[in-house]
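> tool_call: predict_assembly(chains=three)
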Amino acid sequence: MNEQTIPASGTPASGKTGYNFAYLDEQTKRMIRRTILKAVSIPGYQVPFGSREMPLPYGWGTGGIQVTASVIGPDDTLKVIDQGADDTTNAVSIRRFFARTAGVATTDETGEATVIQTRHRIPEEPLKHGQILVYQVPIPEPLRWLEPRESETRKMHALQEYGVMYVRLYEDISKYGHISTAYDYPVIVNSRYLMRPSPIPKFDNPKMDNNPALQLFGAGREKRIYAVPPYTSVKSLDFKDYPFEIQKWEEDCALCGAENSFLDEIIIDDQGGRMFVCSDSDYCQKRREAGYRGKDPSAPRGNELLDDAAESA
Amino acid sequence: MYVAVKGGEKAIENSLKLLAEERRGDSNVPVLTLEQIKSQMAIAVDRVMTEGSIYDRDLAALAIKQAQGDIIEAVFLLRAYRTTLPRFGVSKPVDTAKMAIRRRISATYKDLPGGQVLGPTYDYTHRLLDFDLADHHVNRPEAAPTAPRAVADGMPRVTDILNSEGLIEEEATEPETRQVADLTREPLDFPADRDVRLQNLARGDEGFLLALGYSSQRGYGNTHPFAGEIRMGKVSVEIEPEELGFAIDIGDIQLTECQMINQFQGTAETPPQFTRGYGLAFGQCERKAMAMALVDRSLRSRELGEETTSPAQDEEFVLYHTDNVEASGFLQHLKLPHYVDFQSELELVRRLRGEYEARRQQTAE
Amino acid sequence: MTLEEERLLLRVTNLTKYYDLIIGCRNISFDLYRGEVLGIVGESGSGKSTLLNCISARMEPSAGMVEYDTRAEGLKDLFQLSEAERRMLMRTDWGFVHQNPCDGLRMGVSAGANIGERLMAVGARVYGDIRESASAWLTRVEFDTDRMDHLPRTFSGGMQQRVQIARNLVTEPRLVFMDEPTGGLDVSVQARLLDLLRKLVDDLGLSAIIVTHDLTVARMLSHRLIVMRGGEVVESGLTDQVLDDPQHPYSQLLVSSILQA
C-alpha cells in the first residue's frame, strides 16, 4: 500500500516534512470524511471514528485537528482561535502545525477564513455560507456526568430519554432561582439529539442556531465526530417559564467599546483593579480600526505584548 | 496598564530552545548514546516499546533520550510516530511454546518438563544500593557462569499440561480467517471482545494495570490466581504474504508471557475447571505481563457469568482508562487557557453572591 | 369479549426463570384485574422476587409469557415489545417501589426533582407546573412540602419511602409493583405507611403486585394472595381465605408461625 503518496486535493506530499499534505494519510482522511458525512446526515449524533494518534497531546485539540486536516485543501485559508484569540499559545501551535504540514494560508480575520478551528468560542462576526467552523471537543457526551456508562448513554440517545438532563436544570432553579450552567450548555439539535456544544460560553449558544456555516465537532481522545449542518435548528434546553438567557456584563469593552461581545476580565494590579476587553481579538481589532473606542483605548493587547511574553518564556 | 500573558510564536520558539538546552544538560558531560540507553536501560526501553506498541529498540531509546527519561512522554513520541507507518500485514500468531527460553518459572508445579529457569531477575536481589555502580570505572561485573547443559528445546507450557487433563478451559480457538481487531484503526465498542481487551491491556499503562490487578487480589473481584507460568525469551515472527501462500520468518522478538490460572465454579453447561488470564509484553516486562493477566481474567467475568461488582471487572471503566497517552494529554490540557469558561463561572458566582446578599439584607430588614 | 376479559390488566402464563443450575421460579400462571391488589408471599429464597422482576420486565424469563393491557394496543407480550416501548411503559404506566429507597430514588437530587423527573421525561417543560405537581403529590403522601428542596439522604427511612411512592405515582400509573415496601422500617412507621398505601390504592383505583414476607402487610393491602415455596406456587386464593383457612401444609406453617410471633 502506498497510501502516503496519493496526492491530497491535487497536491503531492510535501517533500520537506516527509509527511502527507496536512499530516494525515489519505486513507485516514477518507475514513474521517465518511464519518463527517454521516455526522452531517444525522445532526447532533456522535459518530465513532478511528481517531489517530496525533503528534499533539490528547485533550489539546487532536479531534479538531483531524477534522480540519480532512476537510482542508491547498486553496483554503485557515484561522485558529483559542478562547476567542488568535495569539494564545495553543492556537499558535496548531496554526504552526498546519502551516508546516499543509502550507495553507493562515489569517486572523474571521471573514477571510474558509476553515476556522476553535477552542471554547464562536467568533463574534457572523459566519457565512461556505465557511466551516471546527470545534475542539474534550468530552462529547452531554449525559456523561449523569451516566458514566457509554453503553447506557447510547441507549438513552436512541430512545431520546433526556428527562434526567432537565432534572439538572430543575435543581439549578430550585437552588439558585435560575439555571446556573454557564458554559458547555446542552442543546437539542434539529429537534432530535441532545448535544454538547463543547465548552463555549452559553453566550455563544444562540450563534449555533440556524447558522449558514457548517459546524463540525471533533473529539480525538473520545473518538467521536458530530456536526450541525448549515441552517439547522439548535435550541438550548430550558423551561417555558425559565427561558434560556445569555451572560451580560455591566461594562463594555475597554478597548473598542463593544457592548454585545463576550468579555475577558483582565487583572491589572494586585489591588483588585481589573478591566474588561473583548475575548475575540480579531473582532476588537476590527472595531478599533473602524474608529470605535472604549474607555481605556490605549491599553496594549495581543500582539503588542509578544515581545514581553517572548522575553519571559 | 494590564499585563496579559498571551504568548506568541516567538515565546514558543524560545521555550523549545530552552528545552533543548536543558535536555543536553551540562555540556562537559558526554552525550548519552542510544547504544548506552539500549544496553544499560533495557527495561525502560522494553516498557516504552510495549506501551508505545512498536518493537523497535532504537526508536524507543531515541524517544527516551528525547523525553529526558520521561517514560510516558517517550511512549507518546513512539505512538505518534507509529501512527504514520503503513500497515503491511498481520503476522501469524507467535508460538510461545517454541520460545528460546531465557527465563521460565511456574508457581504451580515444583518441577516440570524443562525445569524452572530463573534467568536474569531482580526477584532475589537484596534491595541494597550498590555503591560500586556509582563508580563508572568499575564496568565489568563478574561473568555469569554458563549452565552445564543447554536449556531444553520446546518447553511445554504449563497450561498445555493442564489442558491434556481437561482441567483448564480450552484456549480460545478462532478460525484463521477471523480479522483481529485493531484499536489503532477502529474505536472501542462495547461489549468488547477479548482480542480488543487484550490489545488495550497490552498497550495500557503498567502502573494502572498494576493497581487494578492488585485491587483484584485484595478482594475487589477476587479471582484466586496462581502464576501458572511466566516465560521470557525470543520467538520468531512469521508473516504469510498473500502472493507467496506460505509463511516466512521476518525476525525474532523478545517477549514476556504470563499465564495465570484461576478457579472457576462451573455452570449448568460446564463442569468446574480452571480458567485463564493472559498477559504479554515486549521485552522483559514481567510486572506488566502479570498485572495484565490478572486484569484480563477479571474482565472475563461477564463471559463466565460471574457477578461483576469491582472496578477491575468493569470493562468500560478499565478499557477507557488504561491508555496513559490519552490520560496524560487530557490531564495536562488543564494547563491550556480556560479563561472563557472561568469568566462565565466568575460572572455566575458574582451574580449568585449578589442575590444571596440581597436576600440576606431583605430578611434582616 | 366477556366482562372478565375487559378488566384483565396483566396475564402471566407458565413463567419460568433459571439461573444457571438453580431454579428461580417455575411454571407460574395468574391473571391480574384492574383495581386488584395481588400479594406474593413466601420466605426469602422462595422465588417471589425473581417472579416480580420477570413480570415487571426488569429481567427476561427463561420461558413463558407476560402480557399487559397496553393503553394503545391492548394485550401485548412484554418481551415482544421493543425496548423503547418497554421503557416507556416502565416510566409512565407502571411504578416500582423498591424495598431500599436508594434503589428507587436519585439520592443526589432533591425530593422535588425526584418526583418531577418522570414528568420531565415525558415532556413537561414548565418549571412552575412541575413543581406544583411535585408539591401536590408530596402532600398526598403526607410529606412536609417545606422539605421538598432537600436531598433524600437527609430524610428518615419512612420519609424516603414516601418520596419514592410519590415519584412513582406522579404519572398516574395503572400498575404498581412493590418489593417489600415497608421492609426495614420501625413497626410504628410501618403501620402509618401501610395505612397510606391502602388509602392511595383505594383512592386511585390502582392495581398492584406486592411481594412481601410479612403476612400483616399482605392482609392489609392485598385482595388475593399467592403463596410461593421453592420457586413454585403452593396455594393461591382470596387473602382472607388463604390466611384464615390455609389448605397447603406450607401455608399452614407460614400462618401459624406469624400467629405465634
